[in-house]
UniProtKB/TrEMBL annotation:
It comes from Dioscorea cayennensis subsp. rotundata (White Guinea yam). This is Pentatricopeptide repeat-containing protein At1g56570. It comes from the Eukaryota. It holds the Pfam family PPR_2. The keyword Repeat applies. Transmembrane segments: none annotated.
Length: 590
DNA sequence: ACTTCTCGGG
């Protein structure tokens, strides 16, 4: 049992003073360690401050305790105090304080500590070496420095391997991480829980479900799957590989779950089946797990993906009540949520009230403006972001280009596309090219769009040809439409949707022979186009609609309203696109 | 008595 010994202890004045003081230092140091272990840094600090005498181990316990509780700046400050007090650090101290530098992304300070380690002759000790390796790997912009250190290690322990695999994975190169893992196995290094969880994470990052499942099996065999972080990684892996059934199955089988387990499931389901994310929130409550900030950012995204404004507002209310509004990622999720739920005003409001904004905050609102057709506002916000000193990435450019595309701001959109490489040195990925194809296509510059596809540095995929095909439909260009459709069918032979659009194009171009032939092909392949679905919130209910719906109790009034609306459109001179549609279906009424 | 590597948010 520990008890708190302070300066006020009266026995200090006796002759065995020195000895007693030593005992009390050891005891109090144990107490400090224990307080940190229990997660009470303030109590640990109080013991430390009241100690009559502190030795190197006491200082080190404080520093490492701060780091393991993520109080990195306190750890660093205390290290400075320690040096000022004339105490010389050892390998234990330095590995802890190097870890603090990693936690704060301070490579320069880390390098200074590296020098200290050399000075005190501990730089080649295993723990110091590994913490330095981790610091260089995680703080550096690339892996080259860390790789050089790793290759020079005298002895590669499982920790060194884990550090490297983790760093590659965090830098977005899961393949390199797995490659290193294979090497590690070949060298006969034993698995431990850390390697298991990070390798599964690497499988998740490259969405390799087969390899992930093999690793899952390996962890079961070695018993490491009983460790929570490993189990959580397994759930995460199945979610990211879009194997939600397996994720749920494993989740249900877990004998122990923590907050991260629940959060992993909720964020895993948030995109594909947002309703399940909401029911998981309720379930976790009845399992006595309290949701945190992470939980609610995923829940806000789930509301965004369901486009349910009322539900979203209620969630926002809960977020305010729980005091999560100041959180950056939380704010970002809310900006996105309101935009996707159709309330761009609330989206702006949340954005304006955010005390800190990062690239994602700006991008979310730019995307929101794009969704709502506010091209000019998107462009202005993008420029404002640049002025505020934020460096755009390809996602941000995609947001502004796509907003321009939807608003018909062709010149503006192309301007930003060109600025990417000329001004900002941002590489346009396949998605950005897709946006630009869409932009040119909508503007009727079909030949330019086709030429861009031919000279882009990637193999065009289905969605890029799809953008061209859609534009061909819009501008009634059967020649390029046929080319685009053929390319898509090469990539995805049974795409009924492609035939349908192509037949629309032939129909609207009045090429009836080709129209009939395409229709015949649709029948022959026997596949059906997946129906698009829309939904709105009506009071407490979500009502969904599909084309040709006869099931909805509102069918009759829906088509009545549609006729009124299209009459309004015609009367006010809006040219509707109903011509192409007429060939596909007739409204079904009862 | 003190040390390194693992899991969740566009």
């Amino acid at each position: 049992m520990f008890y708190h010994i302070t300066k006020k202890v009266p026995f200090r004045k006796f002759h065995y003073d020195a000895n007693f003081s030593k005992v009390s230092t050891v005891t109090n140091t144990k107490l400090i360690t224990d307080y940190f272990y229990q997660g009470f840094p303030a109590k640990a600090r109080q013991v430390f401050d009241e100690m009559p005498h502190r030795d190197l181990v006491t200082w080190t316990s404080m520093i490492s305790g701060y780091t393991s509780n993520a109080y990195h700046s306190d750890a660093l400050a205390l290290f400075r105090d320690m040096l000022a007090a004339g105490v010389t650090p050892n390998a234990f101290t330095l590995s802890s304080v190097i870890k603090a530098c990693k936690g704060m992304d301070l490579q320069t300070s880390g390098e200074m500590l590296h020098a200290q380690a050399v000075k005190h002759g501990v730089d080649r000790q295993e723990y110091v070496e590994n913490s330095l390796l981790d610091m260089y790997a995680m703080c550096g912009r690339s892996m080259s420095e860390a790789r050089a250190v790793f290759d020079c290690l005298m002895e590669k322990s499982v920790v060194s391997w884990t550090t490297m695999i983790a760093a590659y994975t965090h830098h977005g190169d899961g393949h390199a991480g797995i490659h290193l893992f294979r090497q590690m196995i070949q060298e006969g290094v034993e698995l431990n829980q850390f390697v298991c969880s990070i390798v599964i994470r690497a499988c998740a990052s490259i969405k390799n479900r087969i390899l992930g499942k093999q690793m899952h099996a390996a962890t079961v065999k070695s018993g490491h799957d009983k460790v929570l972080p490993v189990g959580n990684s397994i759930v995460d892996m199945y979610c990211r590989c879009m194997s939600l059934l397996e994720a749920e199955q494993y989740f249900n089988e877990m004998h122990e779950k923590d907050l991260i387990t629940w959060n992993t499931m909720i964020s895993g389901f948030e995109q594909a089946i947002p309703q399940v994310a909401l029911s998981l929130l309720i379930k976790m409550g009845s399992n006595d797990v309290t949701p945190n900030c992470f939980t609610y950012t995923s829940i806000a995204s789930a509301c965004a993906n369901m486009a349910v404004l009322n539900c979203g507002r209620q969630v926002h209310g809960t977020i305010i009540r729980r005091g999560f509004v100041g959180n950056l990622q939380m704010g970002n999720a809310l900006v996105d949520m309101y935009a996707k739920c159709g309330s761009i005003g609330d989206s702006q409001k949340v954005f304006n009230e955010m005390s800190r904004k990062d690239l994602i905050s700006w991008t979310s609102l730019i995307n929101g403006y794009g969704i709502h057709g506010y091209g000019k506002e998107a462009v202005e916000l993008f420029d404002e972001m640049i002025i505020s000193g934020i460096e755009p990435d390809s996602v941000a450019f995609m947001g502004v280009v796509s907003a321009c595309s939807h608003a018909g701001l062709i010149e503006e959109g192309l301007k930003y596309f060109n600025l990417m490489k000329t001004e900002y040195n941002v590489l346009a990925d396949r998605e950005v090219y897709g946006c630009v194809v869409d932009l040119l296509g909508r503007a009727g510059k079909l030949t330019e769009a086709y030429e861009l596809i031919q000279r882009m540095p990637f193999k065009p995929d289905e969605s890029i040809w799809g953008a061209l095909l859609g534009a061909c439909k819009m501008h009634k260009n059967a020649k390029l439409g046929k080319i685009a459709a053929e390319e898509i069918l090469n990539l995805k032979p049974k795409g009924a949707k492609t035939y349908v659009i192509l037949s629309d194009i032939y129909g609207s171009c009045k090429q009836w022979d080709e129209f009939a032939e395409t229709k015949k092909l649709i029948k022959e392949t026997g596949s059906k186009k997946e129906a698009g679905m829309s939904w709105i919130e009506l009071r407490d209910e979500v009502c969904s609609f599909v084309v040709g719906d006869t099931i909805s109790p509102y069918t009759v009034s829906i088509y009545k309203t549609l006729r009124v609306l299209s009459k309004h459109m015609n009367d006010s001179g809006v040219v509707s696109d109903f011509n192409a549609l007429q060939h596909n279906f007739e409204p079904v009424t009862r």
